[in-house]
Amino acid sequence: MSAILPFIQGKCPQCRKGNVFTHSVTNLKNFREMNDNCPSCGVKFESEPGFFWGAMYFSYAYSVASFIIIGFFFFTLSDDVNLTWYISTVIGFTLITSPMSFRMSRLLMMYIAAPYRKFKGNYTDNR
Q1: How many domains does the chain have?
Q2: pTM recorded for the entire structure
Q3: Would you tell me how many other CB atoms lie within 10 Å of the CB of residue 54?
Q4: Dihedrals φ, ψ of 51, to 5°?
Q5: What single DSSP character describes residue 11?
Q6: CA distances from 125 to 1, 14, 20, 29, 120 (A)
């Protein structure tokens, strides 16, 4: 079973069934709230204090990539680029996608940077 779909859905990296976050990404008041443990298999998501501090590096990479992509489109599609429009677009895009960036960076931290968490699902259920 591929880990891409459970990653996008915000599922546990170990069993790929339980939800990592308690609310939807569109719930702007509570999008940051996470379960402490997986509701399905019981694995603890924050394996040590400060585990998710490393997620800010993934978030930073996402932000820099979005700045470069937006800049590429601005500078290739227009001969006269207004810096105010570019900065406004970057700020707006960052504000709109920040809940998704927050979640994806934490999920990347769990899926990639914690290699001791291996998928331990029932292989007969995945056929």
Answers
A1: 1
A2: 0.77
A3: 15
A4: -60, -40
A5: B
A6: 10, 15, 21, 36, 12
Report residue 21 as tokens.
């976050």
Q: Which two tokens stand for residue 34?
A: 């996470």
Residue 121 placed within a domain: no
Residue 70 lies in a domain: yes
Encoded tokens for 108: 């990347």
- pLDDT tens by residue, 13-70: 888 888 999 888 888 888 888 888 888 888 888 777 888 888 889 999 999 999 999 9
- Is residue 51 included in any domain, yes or no? yes
Phi-psi region of 117 (alpha: psi -120 to 50; beta: other; left: phi over 0): beta
Q: What is the DSSP letter of 69?
A: H
Total residues belonging to the chain: 127
Q: Do the Cβ atoms of 22 and 10 come closer than 8 Å?
A: no
Cβ atoms 40, 15 nearer than 8 A: yes
Domain assignment of residue 97, given as a range: 4-111
Strand partners, 11: 19
Residue at 126 is within a domain: no
